[in-house]
Amino acid sequence: MRYEAFIRNVLNLDDKHGEQQGMRDADLRLMQVIDLAVEYYWEQDVDQRFTCVLFSSRALETGHTEHYLNRTFWDMDTEESPAAAGVWGKYRALFAARKPIRQLVLWRHDALRGSHYLCIDGRPRFDHYGEFLGYCGVVRDVTLEKQTEDHAESLELAAIGIGHVAASGHFIHANRKLCEMLGYSRDELQRLTVRQISHPDDLAITDVARSGLLSGALESFKCEKRYLRKDGVAIWVGLTIATKRDAHGSPLYDVSIIEDISARRKAEERIKYLATHDEMTGLPNRALFTQLVKHALESGRRYQRRFALLFINLDRFKQINDSLGHTGGDLLLKEVATRLVGCVRSSDVVTRFGGDEFVIMLQ
Considering the entire predicted model, what is its pTM? Predict the structure, then answer.
């Protein structure tokens, strides 16, 4: 009721005799549109001073009602900062050229609302004779849009891949890093589903956890799996996935943070390989051979099976090292390893114990 009283006072609508009812109704509808769409409607004269300002209820409630009449925009805003000076400089130039003013965004700060952004739109006004009267326009609060835009920009500049995935599995959004990681353009990636870029052996890795996300049992989860690049090369990625929900708690889409961990996985696999294999010959080393023998003993007891161990060392190997150097010795060890493997079945195991010693386990 307070706002309706304000509207009637501004537009002088308290007509006791009910005259010009249609015009009053139209004015009320205009104020309702202003209240729904913008912060306020304004008109300025040829000197860029306000002659009319109609505030929305939102502007009234937030105290955004400085005395505007006979003042300019910059009378109520400092030009000390380069950003503000640039906005008002552009505004004056458009006003002087009688051109429309489109989406001039101004940052402001006040005690009631803190930091916020206002967007100014306007156009020139002329009378029936073409005489320039000034400008009219609207001011909108675009803080939310600006924050969303800044958030989208930060996603785009992020050093890790970020994707938004719909319930169907299709990519709604993919940032620059994710596109580079997978070798697709953004348009190409948005035509694909997560399953289409996943390695066939890793398709089911996220199924259980995603069910937990949808039910609300999980807020987020992490996992590692393989994605297929556009060129068909598989890369390992680390995923952190959470669900974006609306105000009512219904799921909208999944937010995935994606990191290429191929180098780390390769290093881990290399470390694991070196822990169980001889680096020079590629044969199982003493540690792995010990595990294999233990397994063979257990299997032999259970199924009444036998196996044989052949211990082999190279005679006069020291003379090779002394005469041809360690490089020649290494080449000889590699050749011996290749020939021994060629002499046994695939079910048998050839191991380098160390130095010039080899062991063969015959199943």
Answer: 0.55
